[in-house]
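Hey L., structure's done. Input below.
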Amino acid sequence: MQKRIFFGCALVLLITLPFLIYFYYKQTVTSVVYVDNLKLFNEFKMTKELKEKGEKELKFKNDQLDSIQFLLKIAPDERTKSLLMQRLIASKQEVDEFESNFTQSNTERIWGRMALYSKEFAELNDYDFIISSDGGRSLLYGKKNKDVTLLLLNFINKKYEGFQ
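Output:
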């Protein structure tokens, strides 16, 4: 009878041991991957869309500057030239301010959206950490199989387009 109990306990232990090892392993092993931030940022569809929008607005504003400069060249008198010069300076400042504000505000929006999508990506793939690499400069070494840049890029672009 004691032999049966012993063999029964041994059998239960043999059956459950792989599961116990697996769960212990899952609890103790940290899953770390990395991404190339520059590539991720530049290839994100939101970045491309906002950049295109900004370039169109900037072109329009620069065309206005060119028009003022043309009018300045053909101005008939000094008073008109003076007024056009003031308008040119104000327009140039407006263009500079637009560029600065547009870049800063949209960069923050893009990083915010990427962080949100990256969190979901990490949770779906059971990653504990996603380390960023700035074009390979801030990460001294990473195994190629730990680089999930393309996987994350694909995920965030699909998420942005509403496909996930």
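The mean pLDDT is 88. The beta strands are 32-36, 129-133.

-- N.
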